[in-house]
Request: fold
Amino acid sequence: MSRWLIALLFVSVTAHAAPADSRDDDLNQLLVNRSLISQLREARHHMAERTSDFVKEARQSVAARTSDLVVTAMGFIGVPYRRGGNNAETGFDCSGFVRAIYSETLGKMLPRRADQQASATEKIDKNELKPGDLVFFNTMRRAFSHVGIYVGDGNFIHAPRTGAQVRVESMQSDYWLRRFDGARRVQGTDGLDAATAALAAQLQLPGAQLQ
Reply:
């Protein structure tokens, strides 16, 4: 496309540089210029359409990858908690669970500890939360001592504590409301299709809480 535009511009410049010998030449030149302008406008229109399609595809790709992340996380519901655990075979702790999900689905290697994950990601307001974002809680009398993945409709999935399993809980319960410590976004995960958020909203949430 760029070579074609350069060729058209070259013809246009050459035409302007040529001396006009008659009115017929002037008329012909006018027609040529109008034709070139028309073709250039058409080319610009096609380029704008292609750029719009590219942006649209990129946004859809991000949404699809974030949806995969949440669906993958849901697949680990029931895996037992294990302090220092990094995989489904041996169990997860909270930050090990988050790290494993992001590595497996998006190829993003987050730091190991919850507080490090908070420092390495973008701070967002609670009302900006979208599925795939990280939510942090103060459960050990220190900031960012617990982390989970937001799944939509006020719910998050996490590995709670020793003796418990990976599960989905509501952030609106008194326990989690009192301990909420902030939200973060991992670069490149903005957006999720409504179907996955609806799926999360329909889950039966257990009443047990982290103690």
Summary: The mean pLDDT is 76. The first strand starts at residue 86 and ends at 87. The two ends are 63 Å apart (CA to CA). Helices lie at 2-17, 23-74, 94-106, 114-119, 174-179, 194-201.
